[in-house]
Amino acid sequence: MARCVEANVPTRVYSVSLGGFDTHAEELAGHEMLLDQLDKALTAFLDRLARTEAGKRVTVVVYSEFGRRVRANASDGTDHGTAGPVLVLGHGVAGGFYGEQPTLTDLDDGDLKATMDFRQVYGTLLGSVLGADPAQFLDGYRGESLPLFR
């Protein structure tokens, strides 16, 4: 993917996946290994892209299609839940924590309560990165953009 960016291939969005996070047993060691793999891959990718003008225009979004439950199950893992994190990285990203830190004591049937509407994150990315109208792609959503970019 870095070579495509550096070669100015006109593709606007690329997708890469890292499987294995659907852990329902012995989660701690598995997630530690997977997050280390994710960290090393993202660090190498962004370090390489930081050396080129094309690479400096790249925004990376890391998300999961599901969150995890708070309480461990009987197999020392967790089951599918809600309210997962989204990471946004890149040269132009302002950084910071957006939304409220979810509480571990006020749960919704055992799940974390989302503190931000995902459409606000995706709407900001659609408008700021792709120059698209978020309402067109998010069923009319017209929420306020986040200050994700410098």
List keywords for this structure.
two-stranded antiparallel sheet; globular; 31% helix; two-stranded antiparallel ribbon; 150 residues; alpha+beta; single chain
What features would you describe in this structure?
This protein is 31% helix and 8% strand. The longest helix has 23 residues. The chain has a domain of 89 residues. The chain has five helices and four strands; from the N terminus they run H-H-H-E-E-E-E-H-H. The protein is of the alpha+beta class and 150 residues long. The mean pLDDT is 92. The strands form two sheets. Strands 1-4 form a two-stranded antiparallel sheet. Pfam families: DUF1501. This is DUF1501 domain-containing protein. InterPro entries: DUF1501.
What structural category characterises the helix and strand content?
alpha+beta
Strand order of the largest sheet: 1-4
The sequence of SSEs as H and E is: HHHEEEEHH
Helicity range of the residues?
Answer: 25-40%
Sheet-strand content, in percent, reads: 5-15%
Report the span from N to C terminus.
24 Å
